Fold this protein.
Amino acid sequence: MTPIFRSSWTAASGLALLLVTLAGCGKAQQTGAPAAADQAAPASAVAVVDGTPIPRKDYDVYLQSMLQGKPESDATAEQKGQVLDELINLELVSAQGAKEGLDKDPEVAARLDILRMRVLADAASQKFLKDKQPTDAELHAEYDAATAAMDKTEYHARHILVPTKEKADELIKKIKGGAKFEDVAKAESTDGSKAAGGDLGWFTAGRMVKPFSDAVKGLKKGEMTQQPVQTQFGWHIIKLEDTRDVALPPFDQVKAQLANRIMQKKLQAYIEDLKKNAKIEKKL
């Protein structure tokens, strides 16, 4: 069976780890020393380490984080035991760090402040978005906007890339004189596509740098640029082989992505509103 957890507690990450780390540091700062070993642990504790209980809630949150959306029933007893062992290890090492005064180190304290901000910001964001699921009307509007902005044409082209305009002019004359574009590309191009005769396959204009895409869009099928095209990569000679229409993705196929985009926009608008009502002074 493919494991759903990482093998080492030191590799664990996610919101649950942040919560556990903050909880451990907070307990160490409040008590200054482990509680008495015979102190009664809360009934909800899943373990007690040197008198410090690990709450069941910490375990549940950490387990859900490691499951990454899978139901808890997917976790085996062995995997649940591994989560508990990782929490125990975290408690042991974080408590040792507190004993050594690491929580007073300015860099560590700053990192803890940032972790706290991230956890609270995530909680506040989730609370704001809880009742903000997009409507069908919003989803269709987002789909229309997204598809309207998409490139509707794909191009199949070849190119020859050389370092100077002079070299490109020389090769253009050579091709006009009867040399095959593919053969010249194989012999002279400095691009990785040279082995395929400069063949770039199918692409939309948005995938290429603007001078290149502008030149491609200005060509007819079978035509070659009459002047070299300069980009940050060098000088190009471009030949357009063919074009075809781009098939738009069906609405149902991208519905989840559209929902995410809408939620991100709503969250960004929420943040911008908070900024408008806040007094912010930048010191840098």
